[in-house]
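Thread: quick sanity check before group meeting

JM: Hey all, I'm pulling together slides for Thursday and realized we never actually wrote out the predicted structure for the chain we discussed last week. Dropping the sequence here so it's in one place. If anyone has concerns about the input, flag it before I start.
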Amino acid sequence: MYEYSQLSPKQRKDLVEQRLKQGFPPHAPPHPLNIESFYLLTAACYQHQSILNTSPRRQQLLNLIFEQFIDHGFEITAWVILVNHYHLLVYIRDFKQLHSIFQKIHGSTAYQWNREDHQRGRKVWYSFCDRAIRSERHYYATLNYIHYNPVKHNCVNSPYDWVESSIHWYLDIQGRQWLRDGWLKYPVRDYGKGWDD
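JM (edit): ok, ran it. Output follows.
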């Protein structure tokens, strides 16, 4: 995610020139498809700082996410908020709205948390990224990946022990057996390896 900061000044300049020649903006990944579909959306704190280090902060962020996404007509079907990043599984009808939604969520939380932490001017958020869901198998593997993420990052020993996760909603609505069956049928394996570390 932070490869750009590892590049030399010449490598950075070459990369920006290459992106501009291809018609892409110099600072963000392109979104050429913009199709109506389910997407895995991921946003991280800048340089993976543990700014979401309390349950009230994570709950506040989750409330803002639901408020903004639902107000704009998006359907969130899975989520997890960790100490330095979060994942959402969202049905997106109008891809162009995403930037302003994230800007509202991240702008307001960054301002408040910097005041609380006496860190005025600290960069809190890195940009979001998206991955289109390609199939039913991909959808359910993503759902399992989201629920397993707190274990993957050594926050808890069981996905059921992490509060800010949709696993509890699925447990109430679908039941534990449904979750177990989905885990066996759509295993995570190496999903996210290399891009969620």
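AS: nice. The first strand starts at residue 37 and ends at 45. The two ends are 9 Å apart (CA to CA).
JM: adding both to the slides.
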